[in-house]
Amino acid sequence: MARSLRTSRILTTAATAAAGLLVASLAVPTTAAGADDPPEQWRSYWVDAFNPGIYNPEQVEKLVDDALEANANALIVQTARRYDCFCNRALYPRTDAAIDPAPYDPLDAIIEAGHAAGLEVHAWVNVNTVWNLATPPSSPDHVFNQHGPTAEGDDRWLNKKEDGTEFQGNNVFIDPGHPDAGNYIVEAIQSIVTEYDVDGINLDYVRYPDFNSTTTHSDWGYNDVSVARFQEATGRTDVPAASDPEWGEWRRDQLTNLVRKIYLGLWEVDPSVRLTMDAITYGFGPQSVGGWEKTRTYAEVLQDWKGWQEEGIMDTVVAMNYKRQWMPDQAQMFAEWNEVLADWQGDRQSVSGPALYLNEIEDSVEQVHELLTPTDAGNTVVGWSGYSYANASLTAAGSSDPAVKNAEREELAAALTEGPDAPFGEPAAVPSMPWKENPTDGHVAGSLVTRGGEALDNVDVTLRPLTAGGDPVTRTSDGTGWFGFAHVPDGRYLLHVDLPKGVVGKPVVPVQVHNGEIAVADVSPLIRVR
Question: pLDDT tens across 483-508, in order?
Answer without folding.
Answer: 999 999 999 999 999 999 999 998 99
